[in-house]
Amino acid sequence: MALQTRKEGPGEDEARKDVIIRIRGLVTGFGRKIIHDHVDLDVYRGEVLGVVGASGAGKSVLLRTLIGLNKPREGAIEIFGKRTGYAEGSRMRALEVRWGILFQEGALFSNQTVAENIQVPLREYTSMSQELMDELAAVKIAMVGLPPDAAGKYPAELSGGMKKRAGLARALALDPELLFLDEPTSGLDPISANQFDQLIGELQASLGLTVFMVTHDLDSLSAICDRVAVLVDKTIKTGTIAEFRNDTTPWIQDYFSGPRGHAALAG
Amino acid sequence: MVSIENTAEPAAWLKLERNVLRAGGRWTIAESARLDQQLQGLDVAKAQALTIDGSRIEKLDSTGAWLLLRTARSLEAAGHRISSLEIPERYRPLIQTLDRDQPEPERTRRGPRMSSGVYRLYRIGKATMEASRQAWRMLGYLGRVTVETGEMIAAPRKNLRLAALASQVEETGISALPIVGLLAFLIGVVLAYQGADQLKRFGAEIFTINLLGVGVLREIGGLITAIIVAGRSGSAFTAHLGTMRVNQEIDAMQTMGLDTVDTLVLPRIIGLVISLPLLTFYADIMALIGGAAMCYFDLGINIPAFMRQLTEAVNVSTLMVGLIKAPVFAFVISLVGCYEGFQVERNAASVGLLTTRAVVESVFLVIVLDAAFSVMFSVLGI
Question: What is the assigned CATH class of domain A46-72+89-265?
Answer without folding.
Answer: alpha beta
